[in-house]
């Protein structure tokens, strides 16, 4: 029988609540699972909620190998005000009556921000400038600019439009939107750029991540739910089979790769998982030249 460390190793898909950092989630998971070996992939800002991928025990090694290149969000963008952070937590810089902005103008500006675009990240992002995080530089009062970067927004849909907020604040327009995008896309920057294009300013008031790569809210549980059952969402076997392309191998090949030897390459690109006839994930493999070598053993020979 596998030991307890192996059994609790895997990926935890957390539905992060608002008001806590991604590091807070890691700290709480360390207590829940009684281990220091916890890490996360794809930081979420404190105001954001939704999918955060957390690795437990040996699965922390997976985090750097996962191809989490696509992300999905639902968000609310407020037109009529810009802020220092491009979201509701910043100080208001400008206010403009946005009530006259027509739906077709919004649709046109949204279309311009869809597809392959150049985006300037928010200054409160974690991007490094001369070795320091941009958000840390902002707090010092430093004056700096961030370069535009290529990103892909494959979906930017307006789901609902509300003119005037719940307090009947005149002049604001709230847009509930759905976004599918490449990793590195900042939704708060999309809010800023949409407001700028419409000449009224804009910022983000709500953000929920609904998917990261293959992991969705269907996989996710709140930290309270995790405390209740103390289980990972996906053990390592399940996690690699859902996350990587698959190659089926024989028992002899499985024994060979689990002992540290290599397989014959078959022309598969990138990292993929090899699975034995018993549906056990054996290792993550990458082909180089005449060898298909392990980059991570999922199931050591002692567990086969």
UniProtKB/TrEMBL annotation:
GO terms for molecular function: tRNA pseudouridine(55) synthase activity. Transmembrane segments: none annotated. It comes from the Bacteria. Residues 30-187 form the Pseudouridine synthase II N-terminal domain. The keyword Isomerase applies. Residues 188-228 form the tRNA pseudouridylate synthase B C-terminal domain. Residues 244-299 form the tRNA pseudouridine synthase II TruB subfamily 2 C-terminal domain. Its EC number is 5.4.99.25. Keywords: Isomerase, tRNA processing. Pfam families: TruB_C, TruB_C_2, TruB_N. The active site is at 45 (nucleophile). Signal peptide: none annotated. SUPFAM superfamilies: Pseudouridine synthase, PUA domain-like. It catalyses: uridine(55) in tRNA = pseudouridine(55) in tRNA. It is an enzyme of class 5 (isomerase). The keyword Lyase does not apply. Gene3D superfamilies: Pseudouridine synthase, PUA domain. Belongs to the pseudouridine synthase TruB family. Type 1 subfamily. Responsible for synthesis of pseudouridine from uracil-55 in the psi GC loop of transfer RNAs. NCBIfam families: TruB. This is tRNA pseudouridine synthase B. It comes from Gordonia westfalica. The gene is truB.
């Amino acid at each position: 029988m596998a030991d307890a460390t192996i059994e609790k190793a895997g990926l935890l898909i957390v539905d992060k609540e608002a008001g806590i950092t991604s590091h807070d989630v890691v700290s709480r998971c360390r207590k829940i699972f009684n281990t220091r070996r916890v890490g996360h992939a794809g930081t979420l800002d404190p105001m954001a909620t939704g999918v955060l991928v957390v690795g437990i025990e040996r699965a922390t090694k997976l985090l750097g190998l996962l191809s989490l290149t696509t992300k999905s969000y639902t968000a609310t963008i407020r037109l009529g005000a810009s802020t220092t952070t491009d979201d509701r937590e910043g100080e208001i810089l400008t206010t403009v009556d946005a009530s006259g902005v027509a739906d077709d103008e919004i649709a046109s500006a949204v279309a311009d921000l869809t597809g392959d675009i150049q985006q300037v990240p928010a200054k409160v992002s974690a991007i490094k400038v001369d070795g320091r995080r941009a958000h840390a530089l902002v707090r010092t009062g430093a004056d700096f600019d961030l370069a535009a970067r290529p990103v892909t927004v494959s979906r930017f849909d307006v789901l609902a439009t509300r003119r005037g907020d719940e307090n009947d604040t005149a002049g604001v327009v709230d847009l509930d939107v759905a976004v599918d995008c490449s990793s590195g896309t900042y939704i708060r920057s999309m809010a800023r750029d949409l407001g700028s294009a419409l000449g009224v300013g804009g910022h983000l008031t709500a953000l929920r991540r609904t998917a990261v790569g293959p992991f969705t809210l269907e996989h996710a549980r709140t930290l309270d739910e995790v405390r209740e059952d103390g289980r990972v969402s996906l053990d390592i076997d399940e996690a690699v089979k859902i996350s990587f392309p698959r190659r089926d191998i024989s028992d002899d090949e499985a024994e060979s790769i689990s002992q540290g030897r290599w397989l014959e390459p078959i022309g598969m690109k990138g990292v993929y998982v090899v699975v034995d006839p018993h549906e056990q994930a054996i290792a993550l493999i990458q082909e180089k030249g005449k060898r298909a070598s392990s980059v991570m053993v999922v199931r050591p020979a002692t567990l086969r």
